[in-house]
Amino acid sequence: MARSKPNILVTGTPGVGKTTFCEALAGSTQLQHLEVSKMVREKRLYKEWDDELDCSIFDEEMVYDALEPLLEAGGCLIDFHSSAFLDDGLLDLVVVLRADTSTLYDRLERRHYPESKVKQNVEAEIFQTCLDEAREAFEETELAIWELPHDTEEHMQEALERVQEFAQSYTPG
């Protein structure tokens, strides 16, 4: 059965603004915001805990199984830092949000992340880890991957308009 609404993955390094972006986009598109990190915590979709970074190490299979029925129905905004475990057949667009490293550093500091976690995430942004993961995961597909800056309010508005246009013009199949 074809989905009547698109599924859009919004990915990027922690701190680039995925959740802020998805909350704004959900309000203007009637798409359901799926904050996967929150889902992992609440439904315990992990098997390990990293004490040094103070975070769970999610179980790809458990997360996929929780997301699959929602994605099959369509109309989802998937907010997560990882994309490799998702099925391209259930996605219609991948948006990789990017941030300047000084902006990212400030955002992570405001979250009171441990210095090791701040450093790891800033390095991930420098080395474009999330962008490369998305490109590699979907390189053999027709799935569009948009790299969009998300440092300023102006960047956010431009990105929102572009993705809103995609969602509004979506046609199944």
From TrEMBL:
This is Adenylate kinase isoenzyme 6 homolog. Signal peptide: none annotated. Residues 110-120 are annotated as: LID. Residues 35-58 are annotated as: NMPbind. GO terms for cellular component: cytoplasm; nucleus. Its EC number is 2.7.4.3. One of its GO terms (molecular function) is ATP binding. Broad-specificity nucleoside monophosphate (NMP) kinase that catalyzes the reversible transfer of the terminal phosphate group between nucleoside triphosphates and monophosphates. Has also ATPase activity. Involved in the late cytoplasmic maturation steps of the 40S ribosomal particles, specifically 18S rRNA maturation. While NMP activity is not required for ribosome maturation, ATPase activity is. Associates transiently with small ribosomal subunit protein uS11. ATP hydrolysis breaks the interaction with uS11. GO terms for biological process: ribosomal small subunit biogenesis; rRNA processing. It comes from the Eukaryota. Pfam families: AAA_18. Its main location: cytoplasm. Interacts with small ribosomal subunit protein uS11. Not a structural component of 43S pre-ribosomes, but transiently interacts with them by binding to uS11. ATP binds at G15, G17, K18, T19, T20, R111. It is an enzyme of class 2 (transferase). It comes from Symbiodinium microadriaticum. Belongs to the adenylate kinase family. AK6 subfamily. It catalyses: ATP + H2O = ADP + phosphate + H(+); AMP + ATP = 2 ADP. Keywords: ATP-binding, Cytoplasm, Kinase, Nucleotide-binding, Nucleus, Ribosome biogenesis, rRNA processing, Transferase. The lineage of its organism: Eukaryota, Sar, Alveolata, Dinophyceae, Suessiales. It is found in: Cytoplasm; Nucleus.
